[in-house]
Amino acid sequence: MAQLRDWIAKHPHIRLCRTDARFLLRFLRAKKHSFLGASQVLERYLAARAIHPSWFQRLDIRDPELANLADIGFLYALKERTADGCLVTLCDWGLLDPRRYTVDHSNRMHALLVEAYGDDVLFQCAGVVAIFDLQHIQLAHHSLISLSVLRQVAQYMNNALPIRCKAIYAVNIPSAALWIVNGLIGFFNEKIRNRCCLFRDYDELAEKFDRNLLPKEYGGKEPKSEHMQAFREQCERYRDRLLQMDEMEIDLDHNESYSRHAMLDDIEGGAVGSFRKLDLD
User: Fold this and answer.
1) How far apart are CA 58 and CA 191, in angstroms?
2) In angstroms, rounded to a whole number, what is the distance separating the alpha carbons of residues 126 and 124?
3) Residue range 22-29: mean pLDDT, rounded
4) Which tens digits make up the pLDDT trace of 33-47?
5) Which of 19, 246, 234 shows the shortest CA–CA distance to 118?
6) What pLDDT is attached to residue 272?
7) Model pTM?
8) Domains in the chain, please, with CATH?
9) Rounded to an integer, what distance in angstroms lies between the CA atom of residue 19 and that of residue 7?
10) Is 3:35 a contact under the CB 8 Å cutoff?
């Protein structure tokens, strides 16, 4: 950690960055305490924050747009963790009103969740399982999504996300939304792609995932409202720290691999991956 702090202090392009232990351990633990791996992810993490301010700035649960998305249950973390200690998140992506919101709002809400739990030791060590319920996706949502956007999201997850992604599960996928799922997974690197699974419904998901962890509405024990409230409390608890992160800064006008040009153009793993095909009505 001392080596990483010294590296930040002498970095030619990092102008301001957190150097407290909890923050730096995100990157070290995500890369199994490899200094080289942690430093590379940190550079790309800071670059992503600078390139996509609409995703990473003002991560405030009191912001009217984020508060509304939290109120309707668009995204939240479940109260209980898996037997391995993984945090579980549930996103009902179709609840994103295409008349009011864009993909940027979705990405910003996910950034809020990641940052709200980012300093948690168990989250850093055990990682996260992300569940996406796509049952409410309609044709209007297709206008919000393009392959370019999917590539940018995948690039961030491939190269700049300082967490251990243990699994990504998609449930209740309408046939018209399969191109979105296939497109995104196709841009993931092989490691993340191999951790993606698709399920027809929650009954099929229960064959792989402990259903008791889910909200009561999906076969679990506690009502969805209680999971949502616990998530809001977590965001509120770390609100000041999240807002202070907007002060971090990195210069991107150079020729390094984390430059603005490189981050916008380079995608690790561009071929469409293979995963279990579903025949959906």
Assistant:
1) 31
2) 6
3) 98
4) 999 999 999 999 999
5) 234
6) 37
7) 0.92
8) 1-56+244-251 (no CATH), 64-240 (3.40.525.10)
9) 11
10) yes
